[in-house]
Amino acid sequence: MSKISKFFKGGGSAASxxxxxxxxxxxxxxxxxxxxxxxxxxxxxxxxxxxxxAVARQHGTKNKRAALQALKRxxxxxxxxxxxxxxxxxxxxxxxALENSHTNTEVLKNMGYAAQAMKKVxxxxxxxxxxxxxxxxxxxxxxxxxxxxxxSNRATFGDEFDxxxxxxxxxxxxxxxxxxxxxxxxxPSVPSTSLPSRPGKMPTCHLxxxxxxxxxxxxxxxxxxxxxxxxxxxxx
Length: 236
Prior knowledge:
The chain is an all-alpha fold. It is built from 6 helices and 2 strands, in the order αααααββα. The chain has a two-stranded antiparallel ribbon with strand order 1-2.
């Protein structure tokens, strides 16, 4: 007998006496003992079968009577072995069913303990208070969201001026600067000399702000002619 079987058997004997029936642990231990005993019986019968076969081979036709007796014993052992195989199958099925029933019983028992514990925990809970608490939590979450939105918005301090008015004032300032620049522009004097008699290629002049600006070659020629006039007047 194994130590586990002895443990279950010893632990369940007192309880079985008090209730008048075996406990699941004791029944399982007994079934395991029976399986162990029948397994040993199987090993013994298998050994005897091999031995009887050896005897039959040994005698053979030399001693038919002894050989036939050995074969008869082998047949009886094989029959017992088949019966043990069937018994072991039945015991195994019964043991598994008992183990499953015991497991289900323990599971239901533990679930019952858990249900009682949950009931005890919920005894001091008021559903109305829970609803009020959840409502308070929701309100505080809304307040926190509003605060977060207010903080995340861009600050608009000093932005109460109208942008259209500011743009109009800026355009007026630009127009004033443009008018001032036009007043400061001096028109060039018209040259007093006549155009050259020989036709030639006219220098390219530039037209800027609708005012004729003399080319550099024309100005140089006019200055030379002024100098010649001054010299002629001094010589006379």
